[in-house]
Amino acid sequence: MTTAQLHAAPHGEAEEDVEHVFSLPHTPGAVSGIRRRIRDVLADWRLATDVTEETLLVVSELLTNAIVHALPPTTLTLSLSRADRSGAVRVEVTDMGPAAPTGSSPDPDEHGRGLAIVTALASRCGAHVHPGGTSRWAELRFTADTPHRASAAVCRQPNMPLPAAPPEHRSP
C-alpha cells in the first residue's frame, strides 16, 4: 500500500492500494477545504461520479461530526483498494473523543442526521475507541460494471452491541 500526504499524492496507480492522510484544522470552514482536496484525489482515482459524490458526502458528515462533537486533533484517512473489477473507498476520521457539552443543543431539524446518512451510503461502517482517540469509519464498495448502490448497513457505535434481528413475520 502506498501512503501519501496530499501534496505527495501518487498518480496513475489505479491497480494498487493507495492511502492519503489529511490533518484537519478544527474550525467550521475546514470541511469545505478538505472536500475540495479530496475531490481532486478521487478524480485521480477515476471513480464513477456516484461513488465520488457519495464518498464526498460521507467525508463531510464524518468530519463535521468530529468538529462539532469531538476534541482536536482530527485526522482523515482516505484509502482505495481495487481487485479485478471491484473496489472500495474507506473513509476514517480519528479525533480525541467527546468534547465537553456546550450547554445548548443543536436544532434537531438542522443537525443529528450525519451518522444516519453515513449508514445509508456505506457498505460497512463503524466506530472504535482506542488509546489514540475515537475513529469512525465507512467503506463504500463499487464495481466497474455497476454503479455503486450501498446495501443496508449497520454501523456499530463504540462499545455498543449489534442490534437484535427483527422478529420473524408469521402468517396466521
What's the arrangement of secondary structure elements?
Blueprint: E1 2-5, E2 18-24, H1 30-44, H2 49-69, E3 74-83, E4 86-95, H3 114-121, E5 124-130, E6 133-143, E7 155-156
Parallel strand pairs: 1-2, 5-7
Antiparallel strand pairs: 2-3, 3-4, 4-6, 5-6
Helix pairs in contact: 1-2, 2-3
Structural description of this entry:
With 172 residues, the protein is an alpha/beta fold. Helix content is 26%, strand content 30%. It is built from three helices and seven strands. The protein has a seven-stranded mixed β-sheet with strand order 1-2-3-4-6-5-7, covered by helices on one side.
| Contiguous helical run count | 3
User: Mind summarizing the main beta sheet?
Assistant: 7 strands, mixed
DSSP summary, beta strand count: 7
Rg, alpha carbons: 17 Å
Distance from first to last alpha carbon: 56 Å
Task: Summarize the helix and strand pattern as letters.
Answer: EEHHEEHEEE
What number is the mean pLDDT?
76
In percent, how helical is the residue content? 25-40%
Shape: globular
Beta content: 25-35%
Low-pLDDT runs of 5+ residues are 1-14, 146-152, 159-172
> Which sequence of strands runs across the widest sheet?
1-2-3-4-6-5-7
Query: How does the helix and strand content classify structurally?
Result: alpha/beta
